[in-house]
Design a protein that fits this description.
This is TetR family transcriptional regulator. The chain has 212 residues and is mainly alpha-helical. Helix content is 69%, strand content 0%. It has 11 helices and no strands.
């Protein structure tokens, strides 16, 4: 028998019940995914300036008007394509004196699992829009981590930026330039080398001015 608490109207509209995904919604999601996949590849290969809506649409197998319909313009598409979550909330609760090694291990996992980060890095090294986007990602998501670890609140932005230099430098040399000495290092070796550096950047006492 029908649930007496669910009216015919509610059953018809989905109100109060789990609405099934319609074929149209599934097609829309598939189209968005195809556009973003094509855009990430194009932005990574051609850079922001050279990548075109027409080329991205062709790669996705759709009409360029569909790209404009979903994302408005190239700027909007770029922002959606490189919307990166550094997953800082997934960091385990660790003692303050282990934050450096924990961050290195966390970022190694991110770079190895998320091709969007590598694509964004490639764009960021050659294009102002990509560089600005990368800066936004690391500033907004690294600052809370640095704030929790840093002994001096006024130094949080500088310490977060210094930590980012290590992680971005590692990613550039290991996953983009693929320098053999860097790619040859194991995960444990990288953590051992870089962990103490990040630890010092984030937690070591430091005077803003050199002593006379």
């Amino acid at each position: 028998m029908p649930d007496s608490k669910t009216t015919p109207t509610a059953r018809a509209t989905g109100t109060g019940t789990a609405r099934a995904t319609t074929p149209t919604a599934r097609r829309s999601e598939a189209t968005r995914a195809a556009i973003l996949d094509a855009a990430r590849e194009r932005f990574a290969t051609d850079g922001y300036e050279r990548a075109t809506i027409r080329a991205i649409a062709k790669d996705a197998g759709i009409d360029p008007s569909m790209v404009m319909r979903y994302y408005g313009n190239k700027e909007g598409l770029f922002a959606a394509a490189v919307s990166i979550d550094l997953r800082m909330s997934e960091l385990p609760a660790v003692p303050r004196d282990r934050i450096g090694a924990t961050l290195v291990a966390h970022f190694l996992t991110l770079w190895e699992e998320n091709e969007q980060l590598t694509a964004l890095l490639r764009v960021g090294t050659t294009n102002a829009a990509g560089a600005e986007r990368m800066q936004d990602v690391f500033r907004d998501q690294m600052l809370p981590v640095a704030r929790a670890a840093c002994p001096d609140p006024e130094q949080v932005p500088a310490r977060a930026a210094l930590a980012a230099t290590q992680m971005l430098g590692l990613a550039l040399t290991r996953y983009v330039l693929r320098m053999p000495p860097v790619t040859a290092l194991t995960r444990d070796e990288l953590v051992a080398w870089l962990g103490p550096t990040l630890q010092r950047y984030l937690t070591a006492p430091h005077s803003a001015w050199p002593e006379d």
